[in-house]
């Protein structure tokens, strides 16, 4: 049928669909050969490829990186039958094409899924030292995502475009392309500058996201610095040892937070939400039961340590309590977390979103409706 008829058909489906259950965090997990033909010919020999190990497990070979084993043996099975070996792309739920994926949604009683990449491509392809080749991998995946996969059922397959962590200009270029393509959101793996901490260098990207009304997400958290002594989580203007006897106030503000809580705090204390009061950020797959305590303790630690941090390290004071910004601007994803649902009003009812994590190991596919009943009992 003609392209305009094809589009009209999708629009009619979108208008007619009634959504009851949407997974706010699922994953696209096909073999890389699904999208690597889109890599420009001059870079194709550097593209990842699939191999099958002697034990029957599929794995992906990425340039300059350790072998990435496919954990398909953890999907769609009773817990007692799960294993990190034996997963093959051609037989695993969640690893097929869009037609298969829509059928899997129907089996699970899910109307639509927000689709993150199966692996953090920005990390898995980071062994490619040629920046042009690396960005070509990211864009090839994004083209496959929107043009080949989600276009089959755009009202049910909601793909998140990867933003390359190679600088603000590259990030804006990919974001603007995503907007032209009608993408419903983008996924950041680091701060837009490519650094592991928030800085005003990111501001042009935040502004572009607002201008294009583009939802922003991170899967769990931003990756990069802090762990293993690889760099700062906050760019103080003075040496910690010389100015503050090595005491890091930012780590005190975040020590009671988990996973994405640290990235959220980086945005809060970096002044992002003060400069961009319309900006929102969704951190997927964090569970949520810990968040009320995190908010309480972040404020308490800030009141204890914020004054000397301003005097000795020139860490700017916030105009409001740290938790005020996080409550207003940050959204959180959870899977099976009944306690988190119990404390939903302490988090913010409209700031938590359920998901399946399908086809990863936290998923209970094809029994998501049973998980929903457990989590939301009495709600």
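Q: What amino acid sequence fits the structure above?
A:
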């Amino acid at each position: 049928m003609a392209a305009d008829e094809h589009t009209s058909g999708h629009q009619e489906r979108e208008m007619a669909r009634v959504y009851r259950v949407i997974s706010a965090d699922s994953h696209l997990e096909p073999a890389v050969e699904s999208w690597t033909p889109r890599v420009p010919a001059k870079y194709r020999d550097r593209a990842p490829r699939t191999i099958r190990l002697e034990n029957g497990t599929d794995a992906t070979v990425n340039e300059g990186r350790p072998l990435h084993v496919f954990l398909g043996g953890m999907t769609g099975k009773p817990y007692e039958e799960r294993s990190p070996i034996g997963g093959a792309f051609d037989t695993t739920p969640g690893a097929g094409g869009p037609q298969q994926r829509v059928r899997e949604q129907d089996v699970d009683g899910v109307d639509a899924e927000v689709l993150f990449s199966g692996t953090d491509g920005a990390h898995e392809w980071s062994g490619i030292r040629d920046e042009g080749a690396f960005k070509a991998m990211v864009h090839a995946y994004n083209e496959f995502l929107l043009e080949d996969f989600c276009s089959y059922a755009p009202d049910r397959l909601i793909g998140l475009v990867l933003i390359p962590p190679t600088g603000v200009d590259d990030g804006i270029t990919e974001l603007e392309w995503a907007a032209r393509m009608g993408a419903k959101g983008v996924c950041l793996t680091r701060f837009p500058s490519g650094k592991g901490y928030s800085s005003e260098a990111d501001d042009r990207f935040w502004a572009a996201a607002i201008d294009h009304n583009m939802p922003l997400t991170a899967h769990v958290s931003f990756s990069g610095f802090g762990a293993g002594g690889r760099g700062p989580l906050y760019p103080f203007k003075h040496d910690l040892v010389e100015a503050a006897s090595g005491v890091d106030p930012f780590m005190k503000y975040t020590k009671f937070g988990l996973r994405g809580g640290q990235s959220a705090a980086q945005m809060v204390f970096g002044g992002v939400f003060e400069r961009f009061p319309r900006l929102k950020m969704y951190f997927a797959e964090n569970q949520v039961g810990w968040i009320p305590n995190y908010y309480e303790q972040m404020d308490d630690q800030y009141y204890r340590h914020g004054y000397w941090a301003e005097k000795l390290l020139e860490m700017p004071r916030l105009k409001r309590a740290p938790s005020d910004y996080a409550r207003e601007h940050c959204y959180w994803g959870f899977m099976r977390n009944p306690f988190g649902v119990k404390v939903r009003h302490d988090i913010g009812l409209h700031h938590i979103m359920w998901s399946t994590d399908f086809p990863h190991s936290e998923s209970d596919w094809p029994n998501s409706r049973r998980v929903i009943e457990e989590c939301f009992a009495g709600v």
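Q: And what stands out in the fold?
A: The first helix runs from residue 3 to 16.
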